[in-house]
Amino acid sequence: MFAHPSRLLVLAAVAALAVAYVVLQLRRGRTERAWSQEALRASSTPRRPGPLRHLAAVLLLAALVAMTTAFAGPQAEVEVAQERALVVVALDASASMLAQDVSPDRWTAAKQAATQFVTELPEGFDVALVGFAGTASVVVPATKDGSEVTRAIERLQLAGGTALGDAVLASLTAASVRPDDVPAAIVLLADGGSTIGSPLEEAVQAAADAEVPVTTIAYGTPAGVVVLDGRTYEVPVDEPVLASLADGTGGQAYTAATASELRQVYESIRGRLSTTIEEQDVSAQVAGVGLLLLAGAAVPSLLRTRLG
Length: 308
Hints:
CATH architecture of the largest domain: 3-Layer(aba) Sandwich
Helix content: 40-55%
Oligomer: single chain
Strand content: 15-25%
């Protein structure tokens, strides 16, 4: 990427110089052959110049290319630390989280991992908490006090149903309080698809329109079961629905089948949220390369002058 790409047209002049140099060298060779007899050539040119005689010209042309590139304002994508952001942590508090396919159970391991995630977020980040089961609500509005969020995580209560669409909409409400120049992201953990509430498609579209990515964690295994009132219910994790939610909002989709995997996923997400990609001007670096090439081009001439 260049700040002033039109300035690269100057390279046409550099290319013309390169062509002119080649033409002059070819013409010089023909002239030497015309005026020197084969028998006398060895004595008339006892020190026949080798390919190194072109080194200064090549370095000079390379320096001109580098300086012209610097003149165009080259920019590079650089990973830098994200100083401010708002992260909305959304936790599935539906009864299916009682499944013990994850030790000791999905719910206990999820709360522990989410608590660690919030604790390790960068200091400049705001964090909000959304809990959802049959309904969804903003449990803790955006705050810099991570301990308030971790205490609220511990107090969350399980209930029936999974209002996944409402969870996204509630998270967008929590994210809407940020200034325009502060990015926001939703990190949503769930073990299944939506069973009640607002259509998930509408929530996905709302998040996409708000440009707030939803990163999802599909938590659990296909073998999950819950026993309630003497009855056994199968509660397999629904990875495709959560992956579709992430894909539709520009987020990332993760899966975790164990408590350790969940901690690793949260750590990976924290790392991604803690950095951002910025375009930075690298004209000075490119110009520096040009100056080094220019200095290199001067060395052969200085040596010839000294030895001459």
